[in-house]
Specification:
about 60 residues, 3-stranded antiparallel beta sheet, mainly beta, 3-stranded mixed beta sheet, Nucleotide Exchange Factor Grpe, Chain A, domain 2, single chain
Length: about 60
């Protein structure tokens, strides 16, 4: 089992991440700000996506 816990600044990937909230930020749009809950995958199959907060488009 592999953890899905993207570091801040990672590009949002809808296949591995689930956006819970959107916040205004100076970073690039659609990048991960915080991880609220880690996700997990087994053999390239996502069991649970990581729940993340992402930056809003400008």
């Amino acid at each position: 089992m592999v953890e899905i816990a993207p570091p801040a600044g990672t590009k949002f990937d809808p296949h591995h991440h689930q956006a819970i909230s959107v916040v205004p930020a100076e970073q690039e749009p659609n990048t991960v700000v915080t991880v609220l809950q880690k996700g997990y995958s087994i053999a390239d199959r996502v069991l649970r996506p990581a729940l993340v907060t992402v930056t809003a488009p400008k």
